[in-house]
């Protein structure tokens, strides 16, 4: 059997990587100068790199390894499914057991009125599906002019042309012809960076009302849907003020506009409930899922759709689908992952034990001289670095200290991500209290070192 286990020296692998491998969201120059970090194995919350370091992964890979690394049950589920039926499609009136069982399971987990799943290979693909779903829904309801979709600046909904357009990452829009037509953005509810003199609650309402202003500007009969992450993840873990979502709900109801809750990060226990919509009090018409659905062990995503939308769309053939929609191996692994999350009580433990513990420890970082706000929901949190807490000031060379801190974290065998000058954690949901202590200890040490180095 061909083995991909590393036996080559790190430098050789790095040189090959820089020579032939184009990476997502990575500067090629960095790969040439310093080389990529090469991760070779993982277990629980621990990564191992090609130099033998054991690194605490406080990002669960890319916010996805919810059950932690090294679960044999998932390996066995994949192997058994590969042996039995490695592939078949779900097009043209065919189906197979793993897709049927997973759709049924998801309908049981999702809010009561969401009972239908359209599978995709990723969160990006699922959000592309959502663009077509909501527009087709309104066309079939006799309102073809309802095409506009409203999203938020600094949201992340994926990297395909459709989902990247839904996202509000200006750096992404600057490359390659995005956004596509009829996608509009309003400001995000980031009180720390943009709240000015308003209280968080006033600011939350003000940002929600931008949605109403945008709806009126576009014409209330022209808006198909609003898409949002219950808690923004890749934008820097932006926890909205409590006043935000109730006001958004009120506005969407008033104008009969669909809500797409992008649960790609928030879903499957990350916020302490099965879905972030529950934690934030949201009633979506569609939920985008991926990542924690399979704990990242297989690429899979999907859209869980309301009974109303499924019924309307079902009035005709939906001319849409991916070769890997409902891939049997990915579905089998996702089912086993959901079984583990459920039967081991992982979501409940997060809500009742480990997330409250992490919150207390994480918020204690706010006493560090560099740290302004420290915000966390369940197992996703961020700290804002600032030169002056009282005025919530920003660093002139935005992102440099975040980058430096991330590098210090890595040197201290801890993966934290930086988004500008925000430092993020989103660990595997199985992290223990001892590992949380270690995470916080290493984060504090890294902050101290970054502060010294920056002086
Ligand atoms: N939506 C959200 C909220 C995400 O965070 C991501 C990825 O980070 C996506 C969608 C895109 O998912 P994928 O990378 O699986 O295409």
Oligomer designation: single chain
Q: Flag low-confidence runs.
A: none
Strand tally: 15
Shape: globular
In DSSP terms (H or I, runs of 4 or more residues), the helix count works out at: 17
Associated small molecules: pyridoxal-5'-phosphate
- As a percent range, the share of strand residues is 15-25%
Distance separating the two termini: 53 Å
- Please give the largest β-sheet: 7 strands, mixed
Radius of gyration: 22 Å
Counting helices, strands and paired strands, the structural category is alpha/beta
The helicity comes to: 40-55%
What strand order characterises the main sheet?
A: 4-10-9-8-7-5-6
Q: Quote the average pLDDT.
A: 97
Please explain how this structure is put together.
- With 455 residues, this protein is an alpha/beta fold.
- The protein contains 17 helices and 15 strands.
- The strands form three sheets. A seven-stranded mixed β-sheet has the order 4-10-9-8-7-5-6, sandwiched between helices. A four-stranded mixed β-sheet has the order 1-2-3-13. The protein has a four-stranded antiparallel β-sheet with strand order 11-12-15-14, with helices on one face.
- The chain is globular and about 65 Å long.
- Bound molecules: pyridoxal-5'-phosphate.
- This is Aminotransferase.
